[in-house]
Amino acid sequence: MTITEERRQAYSYADLPGLMGRMTGDEKHGPAATSTLDVLWVLHDRVLRVAPERVDDPGRDRFLLSKGHGPMAYYAVLAAKGFVPAAWLPDFGSYDSPLGHHPDRTLVPGVEIGSGSLGHGLPIAVGTALGLRAQGLTGPAVWVLVGDAELDEGSNHEAIAFAGPAGLERLHTVVVDNSSATYARPGGIVARFEAAGWSTATVDGRDHEALHAAFTAPHPGRPHAVVARVEPKSD
């Protein structure tokens, strides 16, 4: 099977564990990856207007993986959707593989930012939404996936505080909450976004229908934050 043929092969959600299982080696950050799997699938399967043939289309939606230190689930979804060949997966993290322990936008088709240093993705997403609006591109949506522990970083709070009053309604943040934040309190994540004027929703991060409903809920004039709760990281 050629790489072109393999990219065209159809994969489903049920295939994702097998695709992730092809990635071996040290420093996999397995819990960081598996916690995001369902969010990534629902977004790429049912919400995002992205495709392998339009990675440079100005009208595409932008998806930014801020939680880039655990990219295995992301790579599995990209392979399932044809952005990268599944044949790349077994070499994950090796010296000459394009699939590094942190995703590289110059090496991996479909990746919008190099990420993994906590606290960068949401500010970049705010800048991306502002840039698109300044260009008159009102169609593309901007999505960023962050981990709950990332919200310990002050840069995120500056981005949250700016985006609400700026009315960045094309901006969407998904917080995967696996109870790993140092300073979190019950309900505190949603309360922080709401205080800055964001639309919010809290859902079961493994329930695909609930995720889809939250992702597609209308929020005119405001950015939207979805807190997707999954099992605690220690489990």
TrEMBL record:
Residues passing through the membrane, by range: none
Annotated GO MF terms: magnesium ion binding
Cleavable signal peptide: none
Transketolase N-terminal domain ranges (all copies): 29-217
Cofactor(s), by name: thiamine diphosphate
The keyword Cytoplasm is annotated on this UniProt entry: no
Keywords for the protein's UniProt record, in alphabetical order: Thiamine pyrophosphate
Family: Belongs to the transketolase family.
Protein name: Transketolase
Organism: Streptomyces galbus
Organism phylogeny: Bacteria, Bacillati, Actinomycetota, Actinomycetes, Kitasatosporales
